[in-house]
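Suppose a colleague, Dr. K., hands you the sequence of a protein chain of 139 amino acids and asks what its three-dimensional shape might be. Before reaching for any lab equipment, you can write down a predicted structure in token form. Begin with the sequence itself:
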Amino acid sequence: MTINELQDELIEDFAFYQDWMEKYEYIIQLGKEVPLIEEEYKTEDYIIKGCQSRVWLYPELRDGKVFFTADSDAIITKGLVSLMVKVLSGHTPAEIAQADLYFIDEIGLKEHLSPTRANGLLSMVKQMKLYAVALQMRA
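The predicted structure, expressed as tokens, is then:
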């Protein structure tokens, strides 16, 4: 699936839920499904700066595609990073770097997150794109 197809699928999934309490529960559920980062990568090198919670993100280039693993010490934040991993993992560095992540606005995340969580989400996006660019230059 393309990044846009994955985003459209998430938009549909979120449309199913009536209120934001149900959507938060869905985000928490997604956090339980995130591909977990290996303990050896839970270091300062892989912490996302700008997140209030501790969030670790590790990129790996396999067969020309970037695969992310992640974890967080906060359940909502873990769900948010899971959303990003679900959309961006398994794509080429160029696709990730150029992705227009419209689903964040479409599902109403920006309006329903606290300012610190919204900033953390933007930091995740920025870091994932930076990793993609760095891996693209290495390839």
